[in-house]
Amino acid sequence: MTLIKTSILSGISTFIKIISSFIINKIVALYVGSSGLAIIGQFQNFISIIMTFSNGATSQGIVKYTAQYQTMEEKQKIFSTSVSIRLICSFIISIILLIFAGYLSNLILKTPEFGSVFRLFGLTIFLFSLNTVLISILNGQKEIKKYTIVNICGSLVSLVITSSLVYFLNLFGALYAMVINQSIVFFVTLFFVIKSNWFKFEYFKHFIDKDSFLKLSKYSLMAIVSASVVPVSHLFIRNYLGENLGWDSAGYWQGIWYISTMYLMLVTTTLGVYYLPRLSEIVDKNELKSEIIYGYKIVMPIVFLSALAIFLLKDYIILIAFSNEFMPMRDLFAWQMIGDCIKIASWLLSYLMLAKAMTKLFIFSEIFFSVSFVLLCVCFVNLYGLVGMTYAYSLNYTIYFIFVIFVFKGKFL
């Protein structure tokens, strides 16, 4: 499967996801407003952190070793080990969520009234974990068609459930939907995976293989750090904005972040689906260099043109995706789009750290640049107001891009 073919299939899935997300976001914006969107952003970051721990942070490791190993004997050790790790971690996280639901609601969402959402999350989290392990295996096996179908089904399920719950329950409905969508999608994923030639239940029935556990643990450490420091930095920033500029301002930043996430989704999805397994299997430095250059030729023109289009159409996008209430966020577009382009340029190189299991360097970069982002945000918001968030975003990724260039030159040239 080439980068272009993968991009096309990812594009179909991403297009449907964008349309679904657009409809969902419009409904959420109309029913819960900018301050409600900020609360949803807080909960999304919390889910991201918790899911990494309940997964044992093994998703990227599963993709790498499923793609790298040639025999089913090697692969089934990875499969069984990852499922065992996830079930154990999910059980522990589930107990914590059920016991401390009220406290976590007050801590994360600033009110104990959403405790039932956290309890529901605790009851369904193991299905989240099993769904992601099956999707990771599909990715590693390069069954991109099935991977695409599963993601499309996930988008449609999310659209129906979220829209319905938001309509009837407003903010509560949006939060409930976030904790049950992927649990329902698990059964869709299982339906398609069972039909795969490589799938047998006996491949998952063994317990933890020591060698596989040690290999996956490298990725677990990287994923735990990434899933901790990045969402935590966003939680801190959103709280800082809410307390200093108001929660409407925090909602505007959440809105521009949502727009960036949506239009860059084709690129980021392709990087995860194609690049990680592809770079993992390449051992020749010249071939690796050629693959990176090829990626820049295909990806960056798409990113530049998309960012330019988003900037030129920003007023229409705000009105269509949100409402007139969100019009103050128009000032955030220019430097946010610049930052997006720099971000993708840096990610094309930074995926090497994941593909080649460069654990120490990856952990250092995630911690350092998450902390620097928070510091830059605080500094620039104090100087320039909300638009300072986008200045900090662009500058932080510029420094990160320079960093990964030096890493690439030092390790692979």
Question: How would you describe the overall organization of this protein?
Answer:
By secondary structure, the protein is an all-alpha fold. The protein contains 14 helices and no strands. It has helices at 3-54, 59-68, 72-99, 101-109, 115-140, 144-194, 210-244, 247-263, 265-281, 285-312, 314-321, 333-355, 359-384, 388-412. The longest helix has 52 residues, at 3-54. The model has no long low-confidence stretch (mean pLDDT 83).
The main pleated sheet reads as: none
Helix count equals: 14
Helix and strand content put the structural class at mainly alpha
The SSE order reads HHHHHHHHHHHHHH
- Beta-strand content estimate: under 5%
Report how far the terminal alpha carbons are from each other.
26 Å
* Cα-based radius of gyration, to the nearest Å: 21 Å
Taken from the alpha-carbon principal axes, the silhouette is: globular
- Helix content percent band: over 70%
Uncertain spans? none
Mean pLDDT: 83
Tally of strands = 0
Summarize the structure.
By secondary structure, the chain is an all-alpha fold. It is built from 14 helices and no strands. It is 86% helix and 0% strand.
Features:
mainly alpha; 413 residues; 86% helix; 14 helices; 0% strand
Strand and helix map with partners:
Elements lengths: L2 H52 L4 H10 L3 H28 L1 H9 L5 H26 L3 H51 L15 H35 L2 H17 L1 H17 L3 H28 L1 H8 L11 H23 L3 H26 L3 H25 L1
Helix pairs in contact: 1-6, 1-7, 1-8, 1-9, 2-3, 2-5, 2-7, 2-9, 3-5, 3-7, 4-5, 5-6, 7-8, 7-13, 9-12, 10-12, 12-14, 13-14
